[in-house]
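Figure S7 source data.
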Amino acid sequence: MSVLIRGGTIVNEDGSSLADLRVRGGRIAEIASHLAPAASERVIDAGGCLVMPGGIDPHTHLDYPFMATRTADDFLSGTSAALAGGTTAILDFIFPESGQSLRDAYAEWRRRAHPSVADYGFHIAVTRWDDQTESELLDLVEREGVTSFKHFMAYKGGTMVGDDVLIKSFEFAAKLGVLCLVHAENGDLVQYLQQKFVTEGKLGPEFHPLSRPPEVEGEAVNRAICIAESVGARLYVVHNSCIPAIDALRRGKVRGVDVTGEVLACHLAISDEVYRNPDWAFAAAHIMSPPFRPPEHQQALWAALASGVIETTGTDHAGFKAADRLLGRAKFTDIPNGTGSIEDRLHVLWHLGVNSGRLTPEQFVRATSSAAARAFGLHPRKGVLAEGSDADIVIWDPAGTRTIRAADQHQRTDFNLFEGMRVRGINRMTISRGNVVFEEGKLCAREGRGEYLPRSANPRVA
Ligand code: URP
Ligand code: ZN
Ligand code: ZN
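Tokens for the predicted zinc ion complex:
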């Protein structure tokens, strides 16, 4: 179907202009100051609106078995929520089970993702290193386009790996031109602090942030950067939440390390006071790692995002239902870790970022789409409005308002981190590869329409 979007302001990370945009065959066919409608073409009036690249969320956990339960959203509900919020592509994580081959794990996650309504790709979690690991990783990189390896420096006894595995995996990734991701917290220190609090009878959710203080994160970010620097790997640090992490990123960049930082919408918006709420269920609904931080850290995160020390935003969408949080009623260490905001990232970023003057619309596009597309090998297919790119588009009304409420959301969590936030700047329409998939508050996306996104590695030329 051919679509003509007329009269809007086209916003890319490098500039904005009043122009018309034509979509044909799922791609952007033309952008010009005036385009005449063709016969039988759908014409969309974008007057007064901004026309921007669809959001890319590089960090989601859909249909993920974790901490004795499973995340609330599967790929159908999670990607439906993504489209409603203006996100047209996600990158999720494959977690091999103990003893499972990486190929079998990949096949299992492709099966889970099949109902997706948005486009999706995968990172592979490196949770062990044995004789088969190199050949299995190579197979996923070369045959399936899984070109980013994820490493957990925390969750000891679970997905955590030690420095020995980080070094081997980073070195192998550097050879292949694969991007290394890290969840950076010092897992030994977290375990020590958790055990200390539990022994002292400090069992409530208010002890979760105290068991994972900012130094625990800053040390691990710095360590990951030093390892990447030593073996020449490209590094991506997920969910930076605090000043020590930002400082480590800045120092690494100054030394010339190829490191990209991500911040989550929720870490920009929410402070640690949520853990001191006397309502256990409310505090427990905010348990995630790294935890929410005191307000000075949010100020620093906004500044880092505006200045480019942090380049991407994600959600780490891993919401759990209230009933699942009860697993940790007796002690905070058993509360499943993770929160969900796949539907709200763009609205929260615009409202708190652009309306306040912290970000320009162009910086918003960079932070919600273009930077992730570049980091993960999707650019210029995605992350930019240009002739030949996929027609993944949001039509954004900067004057529209709505109130975020769990009761209205598409994501399946029975809680919303931003409940009651009245946002100015709303998504009027989402277009994915040329198809209108969200319009006037309604989803119109066929189950399974999402496409798998194989990506290329970026080997260094010798
Ligand atoms: O608490 C979190 N972030 N849960 C999801 C898994 C992870 O650490 O990214
Ligand atoms: Zn994490
Ligand atoms: Zn995560």
